Amino acid sequence: MKKILLFAILSLSTLLLSCSNENKGGNLTITGRVDGLKQGTLYIQRIQDTLMVTLDSITIKGNSEFKTQLQIEDPEMFFLSLDRGTTASQDNQLMFFAEPGKIHIETSLKSFYADAKITGSKNHEVYEEYLKMRAVITDKQNELLIAILNAEKDGNATKKDSLMNISTKINGRRYLNAVNFAITHGDSDVAPYIALSEIYDRPIKYLDTIQNSLKGGTAERKYGKALQDFIKERRESEK
Predict the structure, then answer these.
(1) What is the pTM of this model?
(2) Under 8 Å CB-to-CB from 137, ≥6 apart: which residues?
(3) What would the CATH number be for the domain defined by 3-119?
(4) Which residue among 34, 176, 189, 228 is least enclosed by CB atoms within 10 Å?
């Protein structure tokens, strides 16, 4: 169970480790450009055993383009992080689904996350499709939260209760949509990743259904195996 909590990627307790990549080469080539970046450091990172591990660091001096090569066994969620030096900003990291082949990342210094365009990864295309679907529900949840706060401010308890009931239903729909998306994309490594990162605390029957829907070798790769192990741990802990 503890190992799966590594998917809580925004945890403040995450530590940063670095490892050298002196002998560059491998089955994954990452190229890109950060428009407007003249000086700084880019890090290619992954989460490993609850820690954020740096696979490679790239120093930018004048040329905003970058390139690196890595060896990976299975498709996996990676992170491109930016150290701006003396410039303070919270917009310093973006996620991308890495897989063997060539991946290209275009973004900007001004809006590092929002301007990101990632091409070359089929898994990332699927993940972006999921994020767009999830964003629709998240926007509705945010609108409801504002309405609930306003109702509370106005002392309208009846309206507040009604809005909270709607919010609960929408939250449930968010999880069901995640389950359905994973099931219909069982040939993508995104499916088990969603199960582990989005619905790990939902009824185990949903995780079972996703696991049984995996195909095309997905169950034998990193996240497919992790999902199988997680389901086993859940069953043991719930006995």
Answers:
(1) 0.85
(2) 170, 173, 174, 177
(3) 2.60.40.1120
(4) 176
